[in-house]
Design brief:
InterPro entries: GDSL, GDSL_lipolytic_enzyme, SGNH_hydro_sf. GO terms for molecular function: hydrolase activity, acting on ester bonds. With about 200 residues, the chain is mainly alpha-helical. The chain has a single domain (about 1-195), classed as SGNH hydrolase (Rossmann fold). The chain contains 8 helices and 5 strands, in the order αβαααβαβαβαβα.
Length: about 200
Amino acid sequence: MTRVISEGIYFTVMGANDLANNYFAIPLRRHQYDLPSYVKFLVSSAVNFTMKLNDMGAKKIAFIGIPPIGCCPSQRELGSRECEPMRNQAANLFNSEIEKEIHRLDAEQNVQGSKFIYLDIYYNLLDLIQRPGFYDFKEVTEGCCGSTVLNAAIFIKNHPACPNAYDYIFWDSFHPTEKAYNIVVDKLFQQNMQYLM
Protein backbone atom coordinates (compact mmCIF):
# COMPACT_ATOMS: atom_id res chain seq x y z
CA MET A 1 0.00 0.00 0.00
CA THR A 2 2.79 2.44 0.87
CA ARG A 3 4.46 1.86 -2.50
CA VAL A 4 1.20 2.36 -4.42
CA ILE A 5 0.42 5.58 -2.54
CA SER A 6 3.94 6.93 -3.02
CA GLU A 7 3.94 6.23 -6.77
CA GLY A 8 0.54 7.81 -7.51
CA ILE A 9 -0.07 11.32 -8.82
CA TYR A 10 -2.52 13.36 -6.78
CA PHE A 11 -4.48 16.36 -8.03
CA THR A 12 -5.96 18.80 -5.56
CA VAL A 13 -8.14 21.82 -6.13
CA MET A 14 -9.83 24.20 -3.75
CA GLY A 15 -10.80 27.82 -3.47
CA ALA A 16 -13.25 28.49 -6.32
CA ASN A 17 -16.41 27.76 -4.29
CA ASP A 18 -14.89 29.49 -1.27
CA LEU A 19 -14.48 32.70 -3.24
CA ALA A 20 -17.58 32.57 -5.45
CA ASN A 21 -20.02 31.40 -2.79
CA ASN A 22 -18.56 32.01 0.66
CA TYR A 23 -17.00 35.38 -0.08
CA PHE A 24 -18.96 37.02 -2.90
CA ALA A 25 -22.44 35.41 -2.83
CA ILE A 26 -22.86 35.21 0.95
CA PRO A 27 -21.53 38.40 2.55
CA LEU A 28 -20.65 36.89 5.95
CA ARG A 29 -16.98 36.30 5.08
CA ARG A 30 -16.64 39.83 3.67
CA HIS A 31 -17.53 41.16 7.12
CA GLN A 32 -14.77 39.03 8.67
CA TYR A 33 -12.05 39.46 6.05
CA ASP A 34 -10.94 41.82 3.36
CA LEU A 35 -10.11 39.99 0.13
CA PRO A 36 -6.32 39.66 0.66
CA SER A 37 -6.87 38.31 4.19
CA TYR A 38 -9.45 35.81 3.00
CA VAL A 39 -7.14 34.64 0.21
CA LYS A 40 -4.34 34.23 2.76
CA PHE A 41 -6.70 32.11 4.90
CA LEU A 42 -7.63 29.95 1.88
CA VAL A 43 -4.02 29.51 0.80
CA SER A 44 -3.04 28.47 4.32
CA SER A 45 -5.84 25.88 4.34
CA ALA A 46 -4.77 24.59 0.91
CA VAL A 47 -1.14 24.27 2.00
CA ASN A 48 -2.15 22.42 5.18
CA PHE A 49 -4.28 19.97 3.19
CA THR A 50 -1.51 19.44 0.65
CA MET A 51 1.01 18.74 3.41
CA LYS A 52 -1.39 16.25 5.05
CA LEU A 53 -1.52 14.37 1.74
CA ASN A 54 2.27 14.39 1.67
CA ASP A 55 2.47 13.20 5.28
CA MET A 56 0.15 10.31 4.37
CA GLY A 57 2.63 9.19 1.71
CA ALA A 58 1.65 11.09 -1.45
CA LYS A 59 4.88 12.10 -3.20
CA LYS A 60 3.61 13.70 -6.43
CA ILE A 61 0.99 16.37 -5.83
CA ALA A 62 -0.35 18.79 -8.42
CA PHE A 63 -2.40 21.74 -7.18
CA ILE A 64 -4.88 23.10 -9.73
CA GLY A 65 -5.51 26.83 -9.48
CA ILE A 66 -8.86 28.59 -9.60
CA PRO A 67 -10.52 29.18 -12.99
CA PRO A 68 -11.76 32.64 -14.04
CA ILE A 69 -14.79 32.45 -11.76
CA GLY A 70 -16.02 35.87 -12.87
CA CYS A 71 -16.72 34.33 -16.28
CA CYS A 72 -19.01 31.60 -14.95
CA PRO A 73 -22.66 32.21 -15.89
CA SER A 74 -23.79 32.54 -12.27
CA GLN A 75 -21.06 35.07 -11.44
CA ARG A 76 -21.60 37.51 -14.32
CA GLU A 77 -23.66 40.62 -13.79
CA LEU A 78 -27.31 39.86 -14.60
CA GLY A 79 -27.78 40.04 -18.36
CA SER A 80 -24.13 40.87 -19.03
CA ARG A 81 -21.96 39.09 -21.55
CA GLU A 82 -18.84 40.42 -19.78
CA CYS A 83 -16.92 38.59 -17.07
CA GLU A 84 -17.19 40.07 -13.59
CA PRO A 85 -13.73 41.60 -13.01
CA MET A 86 -13.62 41.59 -9.19
CA ARG A 87 -14.17 37.82 -9.04
CA ASN A 88 -11.47 37.25 -11.66
CA GLN A 89 -9.08 39.50 -9.74
CA ALA A 90 -9.78 37.42 -6.62
CA ALA A 91 -9.05 34.21 -8.54
CA ASN A 92 -5.80 35.69 -9.86
CA LEU A 93 -4.78 36.80 -6.37
CA PHE A 94 -5.42 33.31 -4.98
CA ASN A 95 -3.59 31.68 -7.88
CA SER A 96 -0.51 33.88 -7.55
CA GLU A 97 -0.31 33.23 -3.80
CA ILE A 98 -0.89 29.47 -3.99
CA GLU A 99 1.59 29.16 -6.86
CA LYS A 100 4.29 30.77 -4.68
CA GLU A 101 3.46 28.40 -1.84
CA ILE A 102 3.49 25.32 -4.08
CA HIS A 103 6.91 26.34 -5.44
CA ARG A 104 8.13 26.85 -1.87
CA LEU A 105 6.86 23.42 -0.82
CA ASP A 106 8.50 21.85 -3.85
CA ALA A 107 11.85 23.43 -3.02
CA GLU A 108 11.64 22.33 0.63
CA GLN A 109 10.29 18.81 0.10
CA ASN A 110 12.10 17.88 -3.13
CA VAL A 111 15.07 16.73 -1.07
CA GLN A 112 12.82 14.10 0.53
CA GLY A 113 11.66 12.81 -2.87
CA SER A 114 8.38 14.71 -3.08
CA LYS A 115 7.26 16.78 -6.06
CA PHE A 116 4.73 19.61 -5.90
CA ILE A 117 3.57 21.50 -8.98
CA TYR A 118 1.04 24.21 -9.71
CA LEU A 119 -1.31 23.78 -12.68
CA ASP A 120 -2.78 26.93 -14.21
CA ILE A 121 -6.37 26.27 -15.21
CA TYR A 122 -7.21 30.00 -15.23
CA TYR A 123 -5.66 30.98 -18.54
CA ASN A 124 -6.46 27.68 -20.23
CA LEU A 125 -10.20 28.09 -19.53
CA LEU A 126 -10.09 31.82 -20.23
CA ASP A 127 -8.70 31.03 -23.68
CA LEU A 128 -11.84 28.98 -24.43
CA ILE A 129 -14.04 31.81 -23.17
CA GLN A 130 -12.24 34.51 -25.17
CA ARG A 131 -11.90 32.44 -28.36
CA PRO A 132 -14.95 30.14 -28.38
CA GLY A 133 -15.10 29.82 -32.16
CA PHE A 134 -11.56 28.47 -32.29
CA TYR A 135 -12.70 25.54 -30.14
CA ASP A 136 -16.07 25.21 -31.89
CA PHE A 137 -18.18 26.58 -29.02
CA LYS A 138 -21.23 28.72 -29.69
CA GLU A 139 -22.37 29.68 -26.17
CA VAL A 140 -20.07 31.31 -23.62
CA THR A 141 -22.29 33.16 -21.16
CA GLU A 142 -25.08 30.66 -20.50
CA GLY A 143 -24.97 27.19 -18.97
CA CYS A 144 -26.44 24.27 -20.87
CA CYS A 145 -28.59 23.42 -17.82
CA GLY A 146 -29.22 26.99 -16.69
CA SER A 147 -27.25 29.96 -15.48
CA THR A 148 -28.24 30.70 -11.90
CA VAL A 149 -26.56 29.47 -8.73
CA LEU A 150 -29.67 27.41 -7.95
CA ASN A 151 -29.34 25.54 -11.25
CA ALA A 152 -25.96 24.19 -10.14
CA ALA A 153 -26.93 23.53 -6.55
CA ILE A 154 -30.56 22.58 -6.13
CA PHE A 155 -32.53 22.41 -9.35
CA ILE A 156 -30.04 20.66 -11.64
CA LYS A 157 -31.82 17.33 -11.19
CA ASN A 158 -35.09 18.86 -12.45
CA HIS A 159 -33.58 20.70 -15.40
CA PRO A 160 -33.15 18.80 -18.65
CA ALA A 161 -29.82 19.04 -20.39
CA CYS A 162 -29.80 21.05 -23.56
CA PRO A 163 -29.77 18.95 -26.73
CA ASN A 164 -26.54 20.54 -27.98
CA ALA A 165 -24.17 20.42 -24.98
CA TYR A 166 -21.13 20.47 -27.27
CA ASP A 167 -21.97 24.08 -28.17
CA TYR A 168 -21.61 25.22 -24.54
CA ILE A 169 -18.52 25.96 -22.49
CA PHE A 170 -20.52 25.68 -19.26
CA TRP A 171 -22.70 22.73 -18.27
CA ASP A 172 -24.49 24.63 -15.53
CA SER A 173 -24.01 28.02 -13.93
CA PHE A 174 -20.53 27.17 -12.65
CA HIS A 175 -19.03 23.99 -14.12
CA PRO A 176 -17.58 23.55 -17.61
CA THR A 177 -18.96 20.91 -19.95
CA GLU A 178 -17.21 17.62 -20.61
CA LYS A 179 -15.95 19.02 -23.93
CA ALA A 180 -14.49 22.13 -22.23
CA TYR A 181 -12.88 20.05 -19.47
CA ASN A 182 -11.36 17.68 -22.03
CA ILE A 183 -9.73 20.58 -23.86
CA VAL A 184 -8.45 22.23 -20.67
CA VAL A 185 -7.16 18.99 -19.12
CA ASP A 186 -5.40 18.02 -22.34
CA LYS A 187 -3.67 21.41 -22.33
CA LEU A 188 -2.70 21.05 -18.66
CA PHE A 189 -1.14 17.66 -19.31
CA GLN A 190 0.69 18.87 -22.41
CA GLN A 191 2.07 21.85 -20.47
CA ASN A 192 3.03 19.95 -17.30
CA MET A 193 3.51 16.23 -17.91
CA GLN A 194 7.29 16.47 -17.74
CA TYR A 195 6.99 17.86 -14.19
CA LEU A 196 4.67 15.08 -13.03
CA MET A 197 6.72 12.09 -14.13
